[in-house]
């Protein structure tokens, strides 16, 4: 099972060729997830002031499996933020992966690789 970091979705939304190809390769998989915090980060983008663009984003996210932020994930995220001095959204994403025994696919290898026990890979 894999958890996609927010930056991978951002690349796709910006039409980065490698991200477009990567998401195309995931179309038939059912083990691809994202955190609810990723949805919040993406919706916070100013482009979503346009209702049509926001609808496109939500439709795209609907193609993948969302993991809600549960209390165990929140507690673990707080520990990770404090221990590794992470931004809270990144700590929540890392905690989601750890709690669910998933690997994270991200371009932010430097920060996530600091966390012991977390499997982190670049998707492209």
Key structural traits:
124 residues, alpha/beta, 5-stranded parallel β-sheet, 54% helix, globular
Explained architecture:
The radius of gyration is 14 Å and the shape is globular. Helix 7 links the parallel strand 4 and strand 5. Helix 5 packs across helix 6. The chain has seven helices and five strands; from the N terminus they run E-H-H-E-H-H-E-H-H-E-H-E. The protein has a single domain, classed as Rossmann fold (3-Layer(aba) Sandwich), CATH 3.40.50.1010. The chain has a five-stranded parallel beta sheet with strand order 3-2-1-4-5. With 124 residues, it is of the alpha/beta class. The model has no long low-confidence stretch (mean pLDDT 96).
List the helices and strands and how they pair.
Elements: E1 2-4, H1 6-13, H2 17-25, E2 32-35, H3 36-43, H4 51-62, E3 65-67, H5 71-84, H6 88-99, E4 103-105, H7 109-112, E5 119-121
Parallel strand pairs: 1-2, 1-4, 2-3, 4-5
Report a brief summary of the structure:
This protein has 124 residues and is an alpha/beta fold. The protein contains seven helices and five strands; from the N terminus they run βααβααβααβαβ. The protein is globular, with a radius of gyration of 14 Å.
């Amino acid at each position: 099972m894999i958890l996609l970091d927010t930056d991978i979705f951002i690349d796709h939304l910006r039409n980065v060729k490698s991200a477009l190809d990567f998401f195309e390769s995931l179309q038939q998989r059912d083990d691809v997830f994202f955190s609810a915090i990723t949805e919040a980060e993406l919706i916070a983008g100013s482009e979503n002031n346009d209702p049509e663009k926001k609808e496109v984003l939500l439709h795209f996210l609907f193609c993948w499996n969302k993991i809600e932020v549960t209390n165990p994930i929140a507690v673990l995220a707080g520990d990770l933020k404090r221990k590794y001095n992470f931004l809270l959204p990144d700590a929540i994403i890392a905690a989601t992966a750890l709690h669910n025994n998933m690997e994270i696919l991200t371009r932010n290898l430097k920060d996530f690789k600091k966390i012991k026990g977390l499997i982190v890979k670049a998707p492209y």
